[in-house]
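Hey, resending since the last one bounced:
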Amino acid sequence: MIQLKDITKYYASGFARTFVLRHIDLEIKQGEFVSLMGPSGAGKSTLLYIIGMLDEASQGEYYFLDTPVHTCNERQRTELHQQNIGFVFQSYHLIDDLTVYENLETPLLYKKVKSAERKSLIAEMLDRFQIVAKKDLFPNQLSGGQQQLVAVARALIIKPKLILADEPTGNLNSKQGEEIMALFTQLNREGTTIIQATHSEKNAGYSGRIINLLDGTIIDQ
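The structure tokens again:
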């Protein structure tokens, strides 16, 4: 599903280069649940963002479902992302001035899903996550756990082939965190590929493979 060859990411300032990732070679098969682990500054989030096409590598090759992402233009990458990838962020990234219902509807509008199907998909997600009563509330009227549930529901509503999660339980209490991780486990059993970046050994324990990063390189997997 995903193949990274010699992926390197750096930021140039004058003649100096600050490296965030160095020579990453990685293959992830469809249906895997993978955790990226390492200390702050190891490059976990950057690698996740490159896989999610929210950032570009400075050099190297990236193949997603056999498509050479490194040769795609911005429009092609955006389309690939919107059709196939759901992203869950630590800080939720819900749109503050939209209701729960409207936040769930947004990715469907990007995909140009027809009105009747949108209503059906949103109803299904509201029911699945038991947030029907919250549909007309705004994000600031929800608890952290409820906001993260909405964020996961929004990521799932397009039925993505891949879910990327960046410290998905970082702002939650332990019970809410366990609920999110149990949900990811269930989704993975249903066939969704999941890659999470996490500091938590407990969360990493839910995955089938752990990739350890240090100073922008993979030290073991």
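The first strand starts at residue 2 and ends at 13.

Sorry for the duplicate.
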